[in-house]
Protein backbone atom coordinates (compact mmCIF):
# COMPACT_ATOMS: atom_id res chain seq x y z
CA UNK A 1 0.00 0.00 0.00
CA UNK A 2 1.04 3.64 -0.34
CA UNK A 3 1.27 6.93 1.53
CA UNK A 4 0.43 9.75 -0.86
CA UNK A 5 1.85 13.18 -0.11
CA UNK A 6 -0.85 15.36 -1.65
CA UNK A 7 -0.40 19.04 -2.41
CA UNK A 8 -3.66 20.88 -1.78
CA UNK A 9 -2.74 24.07 -3.58
CA UNK A 10 -2.44 27.53 -2.03
CA UNK A 11 -5.49 27.19 0.23
CA UNK A 12 -8.44 27.62 -2.12
CA UNK A 13 -10.46 24.41 -2.27
CA UNK A 14 -10.99 24.76 -6.02
CA UNK A 15 -7.24 24.72 -6.76
CA UNK A 16 -6.73 21.06 -5.85
CA UNK A 17 -5.54 19.07 -8.88
CA UNK A 18 -7.72 16.35 -10.38
CA UNK A 19 -5.10 13.76 -9.40
CA UNK A 20 -5.08 15.09 -5.84
CA UNK A 21 -8.85 14.83 -5.64
CA UNK A 22 -8.82 11.28 -7.02
CA UNK A 23 -6.20 10.15 -4.49
CA UNK A 24 -8.05 11.78 -1.58
CA UNK A 25 -11.24 9.99 -2.54
CA UNK A 26 -9.46 6.63 -2.79
CA UNK A 27 -7.49 6.51 0.49
CA UNK A 28 -8.63 5.13 3.83
CA UNK A 29 -7.16 7.85 6.06
CA UNK A 30 -6.02 11.43 5.46
CA UNK A 31 -3.44 12.96 7.80
CA UNK A 32 -3.33 16.73 8.18
CA UNK A 33 -0.63 18.85 9.82
CA UNK A 34 -2.83 21.89 10.44
CA UNK A 35 -6.24 23.53 10.47
CA UNK A 36 -6.11 25.08 7.00
CA UNK A 37 -4.99 21.90 5.24
CA UNK A 38 -7.65 19.99 7.18
CA UNK A 39 -10.31 22.51 6.07
CA UNK A 40 -9.35 22.08 2.41
CA UNK A 41 -9.22 18.27 2.65
CA UNK A 42 -12.61 18.21 4.42
CA UNK A 43 -14.18 19.53 1.22
CA UNK A 44 -13.25 16.22 -0.45
CA UNK A 45 -13.37 13.55 2.25
CA UNK A 46 -15.67 12.86 5.20
CA UNK A 47 -14.54 14.07 8.62
CA UNK A 48 -14.32 10.42 9.73
CA UNK A 49 -11.34 9.90 7.37
CA UNK A 50 -9.35 12.86 8.75
CA UNK A 51 -6.63 12.52 11.35
CA UNK A 52 -4.38 15.26 12.73
CA UNK A 53 -0.63 15.12 13.20
CA UNK A 54 1.15 17.57 15.49
CA UNK A 55 4.30 19.34 14.36
CA UNK A 56 5.77 21.98 16.66
CA UNK A 57 6.65 25.43 15.37
CA UNK A 58 10.17 25.51 16.75
CA UNK A 59 13.79 25.52 15.67
CA UNK A 60 14.76 23.01 18.37
CA UNK A 61 16.13 20.13 16.30
CA UNK A 62 15.62 17.52 19.03
CA UNK A 63 11.95 18.48 19.42
CA UNK A 64 11.46 18.46 15.65
CA UNK A 65 13.15 15.05 15.22
CA UNK A 66 10.95 13.61 17.97
CA UNK A 67 7.78 14.98 16.33
CA UNK A 68 8.75 13.59 12.92
CA UNK A 69 9.48 10.16 14.42
CA UNK A 70 6.18 10.19 16.32
CA UNK A 71 4.26 11.12 13.16
CA UNK A 72 6.07 8.47 11.10
CA UNK A 73 5.32 5.82 13.73
CA UNK A 74 1.62 6.71 13.55
CA UNK A 75 1.44 6.84 9.75
CA UNK A 76 3.60 3.79 8.90
CA UNK A 77 1.24 0.99 10.08
CA UNK A 78 -1.73 2.54 8.26
CA UNK A 79 0.27 3.07 5.04
CA UNK A 80 1.54 -0.53 5.13
CA UNK A 81 -1.97 -1.95 5.47
CA UNK A 82 -3.97 0.46 3.28
CA UNK A 83 -3.60 3.56 1.17
CA UNK A 84 -3.21 6.75 3.20
CA UNK A 85 -2.57 10.40 2.46
CA UNK A 86 -0.70 13.27 4.06
CA UNK A 87 -2.07 16.60 2.86
CA UNK A 88 -0.18 19.85 2.80
CA UNK A 89 -0.81 23.29 1.42
CA UNK A 90 1.01 24.11 -1.78
CA UNK A 91 3.26 21.36 -3.09
CA UNK A 92 4.59 18.54 -0.86
CA UNK A 93 8.17 19.13 -2.06
CA UNK A 94 8.37 22.91 -1.53
CA UNK A 95 8.96 24.05 2.07
CA UNK A 96 6.65 21.36 3.38
CA UNK A 97 6.46 19.27 6.52
CA UNK A 98 5.89 16.36 4.18
CA UNK A 99 9.58 16.32 3.23
CA UNK A 100 10.55 15.73 6.85
CA UNK A 101 7.93 12.99 7.20
CA UNK A 102 9.03 11.33 3.96
CA UNK A 103 12.70 11.29 5.01
CA UNK A 104 11.80 9.93 8.45
CA UNK A 105 9.66 7.19 6.93
CA UNK A 106 12.50 6.29 4.55
CA UNK A 107 14.95 6.02 7.46
CA UNK A 108 12.71 4.50 10.13
CA UNK A 109 10.07 2.60 8.09
CA UNK A 110 11.60 1.73 4.70
CA UNK A 111 8.81 -0.72 3.83
CA UNK A 112 6.33 2.16 3.41
CA UNK A 113 5.84 3.15 -0.22
CA UNK A 114 5.52 6.90 -0.73
CA UNK A 115 4.24 8.76 -3.78
CA UNK A 116 4.06 12.52 -4.26
CA UNK A 117 0.98 14.10 -5.83
CA UNK A 118 2.11 17.60 -6.83
CA UNK A 119 0.07 20.63 -5.91
CA UNK A 120 -0.19 24.21 -7.08
CA UNK A 121 2.29 26.18 -5.01
CA UNK A 122 2.04 29.83 -4.01
CA UNK A 123 5.29 30.31 -5.94
CA UNK A 124 3.36 29.69 -9.16
CA UNK A 125 -0.17 30.67 -8.10
CA UNK A 126 0.78 34.27 -7.40
CA UNK A 127 1.45 34.89 -11.08
CA UNK A 128 -2.21 34.32 -11.90
CA UNK A 129 -3.47 36.40 -9.00
CA UNK A 130 -1.20 39.36 -9.80
CA UNK A 131 -1.25 39.00 -13.59
CA UNK A 132 2.51 38.47 -13.76
CA UNK A 133 3.86 36.71 -16.85
CA UNK A 134 7.04 34.78 -16.31
CA UNK A 135 8.71 34.30 -19.65
CA UNK A 136 12.09 34.43 -21.34
CA UNK A 137 14.09 37.27 -19.88
CA UNK A 138 11.80 37.65 -16.86
CA UNK A 139 13.69 38.12 -13.64
CA UNK A 140 12.32 37.36 -10.22
CA UNK A 141 14.35 38.07 -7.13
CA UNK A 142 13.44 36.98 -3.64
CA UNK A 143 14.30 39.49 -0.94
CA UNK A 144 13.44 39.57 2.73
CA UNK A 145 11.86 42.68 4.18
CA UNK A 146 14.10 44.52 6.61
CA UNK A 147 12.28 45.79 9.70
CA UNK A 148 8.98 45.45 7.86
CA UNK A 149 10.06 47.67 4.94
CA UNK A 150 9.53 45.95 1.62
CA UNK A 151 12.46 46.04 -0.78
CA UNK A 152 11.76 48.17 -3.83
CA UNK A 153 13.30 48.51 -7.24
CA UNK A 154 12.59 49.34 -10.86
CA UNK A 155 10.70 46.11 -11.53
CA UNK A 156 7.64 44.57 -9.91
CA UNK A 157 7.87 43.66 -6.26
CA UNK A 158 6.41 40.30 -5.34
CA UNK A 159 6.10 39.25 -1.71
CA UNK A 160 5.43 35.63 -0.85
CA UNK A 161 5.19 34.07 2.57
Automatic annotation (TrEMBL):
<dbReference type="InterPro" id="IPR000878">
    <property type="entry name" value="4pyrrol_Mease"/>
</dbReference>
<dbReference type="InterPro" id="IPR003043">
    <property type="entry name" value="Uropor_MeTrfase_CS"/>
</dbReference>
<comment type="pathway">
    <text>Cofactor biosynthesis; adenosylcobalamin biosynthesis.</text>
</comment>
<feature type="domain" description="Tetrapyrrole methylase">
    <location>
        <begin position="2"/>
        <end position="142"/>
    </location>
</feature>
<protein>
    <submittedName>
        <fullName>Cobalt-precorrin-2 C(20)-methyltransferase</fullName>
    </submittedName>
</protein>
<dbReference type="InterPro" id="IPR035996">
    <property type="entry name" value="4pyrrol_Methylase_sf"/>
</dbReference>
<keyword id="KW-0169">Cobalamin biosynthesis</keyword>
<dbReference type="InterPro" id="IPR012382">
    <property type="entry name" value="CobI/CbiL"/>
</dbReference>
<keyword id="KW-0489">Methyltransferase</keyword>
<dbReference type="GO" id="GO:0009236">
    <property type="term" value="P:cobalamin biosynthetic process"/>
</dbReference>
<dbReference type="GO" id="GO:0030788">
    <property type="term" value="F:precorrin-2 C20-methyltransferase activity"/>
</dbReference>
<dbReference type="Pfam" id="PF00590">
    <property type="entry name" value="TP_methylase"/>
</dbReference>
<dbReference type="GO" id="GO:0032259">
    <property type="term" value="P:methylation"/>
</dbReference>
<dbReference type="InterPro" id="IPR014777">
    <property type="entry name" value="4pyrrole_Mease_sub1"/>
</dbReference>
<keyword id="KW-0808">Transferase</keyword>
Amino acid sequence: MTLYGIGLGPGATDLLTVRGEQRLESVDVVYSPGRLSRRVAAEYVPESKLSDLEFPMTTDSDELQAAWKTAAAEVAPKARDADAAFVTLGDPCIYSTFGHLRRTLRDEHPAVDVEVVPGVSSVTAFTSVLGVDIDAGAELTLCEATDGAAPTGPNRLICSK
